[in-house]
Amino acid sequence: QVQLVESGGGLVQPGGSLRLSCAASGSIFSIAAMDWYHQAPGNQRELVAHITSGGNTNYADSVKGRFTISRDNAKNTVYLQMNSLKPEDTSVYYCHARWFRNLRWYDAWGQGTQVTVSS
Prior knowledge:
The protein has strands at 4-7, 10-12, 18-24, 33-39, 46-51, 57-59, 67-72, 77-82, 91-101, 104-109, 113-117. By secondary structure, the protein is mostly beta strands.
């Protein structure tokens, strides 16, 4: 069973930075594509950033140039560096993993970490 544990959320002023971390248990991390999603109250969960097992990345238009997703396979951890934060980035951020094994796809979600951008 794969477990994902996020950390690094908190309260930050507009223009500030935070780095989220997501630590994965289990042996699948190196073969998994990893994502960060966010979900504000009353809204659907939306993809923020994606990184493949090979390190290719893509981002939502709203965070391009401000957020960077990266991974450290030796530590089974994916990161989201968030710079130039805006009040509209306020949300719960979730880590997601997806991998293919034994002829089928699997996925897992973390519990979420709150990010609040406010002065």
